[in-house]
Every structure is written in structure tokens, then in C-alpha cells.
Write a structure and sequence with these properties.
By secondary structure, this protein is α/β, with parallel strands linked by helices. The protein has 13 helices and 17 strands. The protein folds into two domains: 240 residues, TIM Barrel; 67 residues, no CATH class. The protein binds iron/sulfur cluster.
Length: 352
């Protein structure tokens, strides 16, 4: 029997490229949505044939800028998913959005077609910083979108970036205060990193030191009114992103669209796949267990200690480093708050 599969659909278009962005996305004012939709529908048909009518607990439209998509395209993709799989009645259906690409009417259309969670790329509430990041919107547009989404009674999340050149702990504390006053139940807080090939990588920026970044990271955890549940994610209990939690926990998921990755489970065999049929290869239980440790330890609740994970974990390291990592009452292995700051080192020591 084939278990439920979460579904990630990649939308690779943006109005323009941000200065820090290394995501697979293309600046394109007028994408060929007809061609895009046909490709996605073809992939959905392929997976329906391979997996059968499996349950789908979550669908996540990520980008790029999925909110650029016409409502009709979204509707047709959702219809194809519903016709091909059992999309659960309480399925979490998330759409990533950028301010300025979605008005009230468009939001209503997405909601009518099933979207029940909107993730907004706010990034900053300071117009000078937004300009520096190469964003197309200002703080007012972002706040208007957040308020409009909250008024529609859907789940709302906002992404922010901190650790820009010149940022201090006080800046981060102020940002957290501003976010708290928005009353959000979920937000993602990302440290700015300089990725090769981006405009920022060639700009000789004076970035905060590792110690300053660590202080800012701790300040976020201490000053946001909602708790951290993953390295970069914060939510009021019960408002965590179900899609990401499932994926980090090691549940199967399908990636649809070029640039989307998935981990598919058929007859107890794991497969690594890339959207567009670019790759579909077997993954050994050991390799899959290592992936689960890497993603699972990013969550505050940690990784489940099932038999495959137990096989690859160096428990001597765990016993010797209780200040960094510990087993929990519900048979999980979790990093301590101190351990969260050195996760890469921990993982290297745990799985060699
Ligand atoms: S909107 Fe997001 S995906 Fe698009 S260029 Fe900016 S950071 Fe990259």
C-alpha cells in the first residue's frame, strides 16, 4: 500500500530578482501560464498513475512567486489534484505570495479554489532595507496584504530577514516588537546569507560576525511572542506549517515543477525525485535516515528515533554531549537551545 504523500508545486517566476536570491526562479513579467499549467497537469497525471489515488494531507505552492499565478491556473491545478488523489478535507493548502502581486479579489479567488494558508514575503518593515534587499514592495503594501489576509480568516505567515550589514541586536529586538504587534500566529525569521552568484555576493558587504549573528538569533527567540519550533520558524501552538513539519519529519512528498524536489515512498522503497522527471532514483534506508536526521534536528521537537535512525546515530556522542543534544520522553532526539546554534557540527558528529 502506498502511504499519503504531501505535494509541493513549484512556481518559478518572479517580477524581478532580489539581491540575495539564490532560489530557482526567473524574472519574468509575463510568464506563459498556459505552458506552465500544461506541464504541471502532465506531472500530476504521471504521479497519479504511479502512486494511485493516495491521500494528500498538504499542498504547498512555493516559489518563485506563486501569487503571480492567475486564479484560473491555480483552480485548474487544484481540480487536477482533487480528481487524481484524495485531497484530505482538512488539507493544508499554502500559497507563497509577495506584496504587490495579489489584491483582494485575487485572494478571494485563491481562497474559493482551496487556498487556506497564505505565506507573505514581507522581509522587512523598513523601506530602506527593503530597497537594499532589492524587493519591489514597501512596508505599507506588505502590511495591507497581511491585514487583508487576516480579515479573510485564513492562516497567515510572514517571512522576515535579519542580520543585514549594520544590523544590531537592538534592531532585531525592535523588529520582533513590530512583528508581535501584528498579532501573527506564524512567522519565519531568516538570517541573511550571501549566496554565490547573487548580486550581494559581489558587493563586498560588511556582514555581522558569527557571534553577532548568534546574538541576533537568540534575540529573535527571546523577543518574539510566539515560540520557535524550527531553526527559523515560530508559531503559536497548533499553527505550525503542517507541510514543512511533515517533510522535516520524513513523511513522503512529491515535488512538481522544475526545481521541485521530492521523496517518494512506494512499496517500502524510498525514491529521490526532481520535478519535471529530471530524476527518479532509489534511496537506501540509510541515506534516507541521514536526511531525516538533518531535517528532523532542525525542529525543536527533534527527530523520531525509529529503527533506521537508531542504526546510523552515534549514541556515544549523544551521551557525552547532553548540553547540546538529548533524547526526549516521546522517543525523539532533539538539540538543546545551545545545540541549535551548532547544528551542523552536531549532525556531523552524529552521522559521521
Ligand atoms: S521574490 Fe523570492 S524567489 Fe523571487 S527573487 Fe525575490 S527572494 Fe527570490
Amino acid at each position: 500500500m502506498i502511504p499519503p504523500h504531501n505535494i509541493y508545486i513549484h512556481v518559478p517566476f518572479c517580477i524581478s530578482k532580489c539581491n540575495y536570491c539564490a532560489f530557482f526562479s526567473r524574472a519574468c513579467e509575463n510568464p506563459d501560464w498556459h505552458e506552465y499549467e500544461n506541464n504541471i497537469l502532465r506531472e500530476i497525471a504521471h504521479w497519479a498513475q504511479l502512486l494511485g489515488r493516495v491521500h494528500v494531507p498538504t499542498v504547498f505552492f512555493g516559489g518563485g512567486t506563486p501569487s503571480l499565478m492567475p486564479v484560473k491556473t491555480f483552480e485548474n491545478i487544484m481540480s487536477a489534484l482533487r480528481n487524481s488523489f484524495y485531497v484530505d478535507s482538512d488539507c493544508e493548502i499554502t500559497l507563497e505570495s509577495n506584496p504587490g502581486t495579489i489584491d483582494d479579489e485575487k485572494m478571494a479567488g485563491f481562497i474559493d479554489a482551496g487556498m487556506n494558508r497564505l505565506s507573505v514575503g514581507v522581509q522587512s518593515l523598513d523601506d530602506t532595507k527593503l530597497q537594499f534587499l532589492g524587493r519591489r514592495h514597501n512596508a505599507r503594501t506588505a502590511l495591507n496584504l497581511l491585514n487583508a489576509a487576516v480579515a479573510r480568516n485564513i492562516r497567515v505567515s510572514a517571512d522576515f530577514i535579519y542580520g543585514l550589514p549594520g544590523d544590531t541586536v537592538s534592531d532585531v529586538i525592535k523588529l520582533c516588537g513590530d512583528i508581535n504587534s501584528l498579532g501573527l500566529n506564524h512567522c519565519s525569521m531568516y538570517e541573511l546569507t550571501l549566496e554565490p552568484g547573487t548580486p550581494f555576493a559581489n558587493m563586498q558587504l560588511q556582514m555581522p560576525s558569527n557571534d553577532e549573528m548568534a546574538d541576533m538569533y537568540n534575540a529573535v527567540g527571546d523577543n518574539l511572542s510566539i515560540p520557535r519550533y524550527e531553526v527559523s520558524n515560530y508559531a503559536a501552538p497548533g499553527n505550525e506549517c503542517k507541510h514543512n513539519m511533515n517533510v522535516w519529519d520524513g513523511a513522503p512528498y512529491v515535488g512538481i515543477g522544475r526545481g521541485a524536489a521530492g521523496r517518494v515512498l512506494i512499496d517500502d522503497v524510498w525514491y529521490e525525485q526532481l520535478g519535471g522527471g529530471v530524476r527518479f532514483e532509489k534511496l537506501s534506508p540509510g541515506a534516507r535516515a541521514i536526511e531525516r536526521v538533518i531535517t528532523g534536528l532542525r525542529m525543536v521537537r527533534g527527530v523520531g528515533l525509529d529503527k533506521d535512525v537508531k542504526k546510523i546515530i552515534n549514541m556515544d556522542y549523544v551521551h557525552a554531549h547532553g548540553d547540546l543534544i538529548r533524547t526526549t520522553a516521546n522517543n525523539r532526539l532533539a538539540a538543546t537551545p545551545r545545540g541549535m546554534l551548532v547544528l551542523d557540527d552536531i549532525i556531523l558528529n552524529l552521522v559521521g
